[in-house]
Amino acid sequence: MTTATIKGWCPGALRPMESGDGLIVRLKIAGGIVPLDLAAKIADWSSRWGNGEIDLTGRANLQLRGVSVETVPALRQAIAEAGLLDAEADGEAVRNVIASPLAGLDPGAVLDIRPIVAKLEGRLASDPKLHALPAKFCFAVDDGGRLGLGDVRADIRFEALATADGPIFAIYYDGGEDRRIGSCNPNDVAEAAALLSSVFLMHRERSGGDIRRVRDLVDTVGMRTLAGAGALGPKSRVARVTPAETFARIGVQSLNDSALPSSGEALGYLGIGLPFGRIAVGDFDRLVKSVGRYDVSEFRLSPWRAIVVPLSSLQSAHDLAGTLAARAFILDPTDPRLRVAACAGAPSCVHGTTPTREDATRLAALIAKGSFLHVSGCAKGCAHPRSAPVTLVGRDGLYDVVHNGAPSESPALRALTLDEAAEHLRQITTKHSQDGIA
Questions:
Q1: How far apart are CA 285 and CA 413, in angstroms?
Q2: Is residue 346 within 8 Å of 377, Cβ to Cβ?
Q3: Phi, then psi, of 45 in degrees rounded to 5
Q4: N or C: which end of the chain has fewer CB within 10 A?
């Protein structure tokens, strides 16, 4: 096995990761902006050199599954010809930037963040000092528009705010409002990211390399130590943007707040959810061809495992939605599958012993409205490493149940069959409903 197939690494084009269904090759597409001609190529790559399964990750990246050691060189050459291949694996590994999906299109955004994101990605890829960052270390750049990233986990977050003196970016460490550490001008985002990353790396080295995420560093040394570590601007008093609710991310949406939903000419978009972040290449190819029938040159990837298609009118968005199969796509913001996170599971993942996506599909309808379920193939919790109201953790073909915790925490119940887990969820939902009535 070569260094290009390291098991357990965050997969890239230069450093694929071994899984149960072959190698995973992650495509880090700048800003999550996918031109349609590139999308068509990705479908072809999946068919020719993968197993025909494509993942949309929680960091708005696309992954090709089922690639083999023999097909990696041809795939990598095609990726290079498409302009997506990084100069080196270490630079690719740390180029983890999540951007607002409607960057440059949302009239409600504070500013167009596309050049800012490009500059930040370039700095991460080209600065050898930053290549020491852990592979899961992540940045978020929020344009202050309607599809805010406030609920997306990122080690360092930049949120655009409108002030009397022009746009600024409030800067946060992962963990919430109380972890705002300063501000910077739009032109200084990349430099601020590099500075704060250097602070993290310094403290990480002092700890012996055990700290891997900013939230762990904050818990270890405290905000007071970190907040004064860099030459950042003051903490702005402007309120942060509230993240968009699910209903604003999925289905036909207007980009003109004054337009009525029935208006056929308002600029809009179609949010297309992918069930548990997976799509078959045939469905992906049909989506690309369907989008191409409209005056559209690209679509956007989002960290909510949904594709955002900007369209010239709401009527076009409705027409496009009518061509997509409910089996493969989620177009209804009340679809219960949106309340469930599930990893690849068995047999796609070597760590999984349960078919998590199949089981999640069955269990989705049992989840109470307003609640959330995580079906994890193992205690790593790749699909949702955070706490959830209910988490099913696969173990030896059965499920352990964790209440209000992460997959790695102690379970309340052990070794449940799928039927037993389903009955447990029914009981929770019934109690939730009764408590609501009371």
A1: 42
A2: yes
A3: -60, -45
A4: C
Instruction: Confirm if 155 and 196 have CB atoms less than 8 A apart.
Output: no
* b/e code 63-85 from CB counts within 10 Å (16+ = b): bbbbbeeebbeebbebbeebebb
- Give me the DSSP letters along 275-305: GGGEEEHHHHHHHHHHHTTSS--EEEE-TTS
Tokens of 431: 């109690």
pTM: 0.91
Reading the block at residue 276, the tokens are 């548990």
- Which CATH number covers residue 406? 3.30.413.10
In a domain, 325, yes or no: no
- In angstroms, the CA 329 to CA 278 distance is 10
201-249 pLDDT, tens digit each: 998 888 887 888 998 888 888 887 776 555 466 655 555 556 666 668 9
Give the chain's domain count.
1
- The side-by-side arrangement of strands in the sheet containing 17-19 is 17-19, 22-27, 62-67, 53-56, 278-280
Q: How far is CA 411 from the centre of its chain?
A: 27
Q: What are phi and psi of 204, to 5 degrees?
A: -65, -40
A 10 A CB-CB count for 127 gives 16
> In this structure, which amino acid lies at residue 382?
C
Confirm if 15 and 6 have CB atoms less than 8 A apart: yes
Q: Domain containing 402: what range? A: 336-437
The DSSP 8-state label assigned to residue 7 in this structure reads T
pLDDT in tens, 155-199: 999 999 999 999 999 999 997 667 888 899 999 999 999 999 999
Residue with the larger pLDDT of the pair 247 and 286: 286
